[in-house]
Amino acid sequence: MQTIALVGCGNLGSAIIKGLLASGQAPQHIRASRRSLWALQPLSELGVQTFSDNLEAIQGADIIILGLKPYVMPKVLAEIAPKLGPQQILVSLASGLSLESLGQELPEEQPLVRAMPNTAADVSESLSCLAQKNCSLQQQKAVGRIFEAVGEAIWIEEELMEAATILGACGVAYVLRFIRAMVQGGIQLGFDAQTAKKIVTQTTKGAAELLLQGGKHPEEEIDKVTTPRGCTIVGLNEMEHSGFSSALIKGILASFEAIEKK
Description:
Blueprint (H helix, E strand, L loop, with lengths): L3 E4 L3 H12 L7 E4 L7 H4 L4 E3 L2 H5 L4 E4 L6 H8 L8 E4 L6 H4 L9 E5 L9 E8 L3 H12 L2 E5 L5 H29 L3 H22 L3 H8 L5 H11 L2 H18 L1
Organism: Saprospira grandis (strain Lewin)
GO biological process, one term: L-proline biosynthetic process
GO molecular function, one term: pyrroline-5-carboxylate reductase activity
């Protein structure tokens, strides 16, 4: 069983560790580091090895996940680079840092992965996009299994990582804003807030499952509930007249432009 170290283990790192434990990873093969060691106490109680020293945490680890802010990353990479072995895989969770920039402090052939999970990792329903450099197929599979422990994982070209951030990470906020608006509409129709939320969240989950399990285009499922002169098509047309799809697409593109400027 491979040993996995999470350096800078915050909320996302903790979610990944809990997913790994639930998938059968032995706690003694998981390491976590953080400056505030007390914050890792819940993981320690689960049998995970915890450290306040990054160099201790990565010693002997097969895969090292860096859950660090982008501005902290160069300092930590410079710290751990002299102690890295050529087969240790580095996985960065920092948005906006390219594989090229990550590799500046490292040996040229160091296996590197950029990973972009989302906050649904907390409930093991993340969609994680992964891009790699210098990784063998076996190493890619090993990293993929980690992120499959908290949802789904797909490999993409690195040039699409910023776009993946918008759809997969920012996208959680877009969907939640849609859900909030649906709930508000339900309240105006007469439901209390909790009942409206229950109806809307289950409906949203069900709609997603129709596409995930059926593999159909969204319009095919929409056609099933839009009868001639029915209330559904009236509502959809009113939303489109008000710019529903256009506003969403513009928002996605605006977010992408913002991330490109960083």
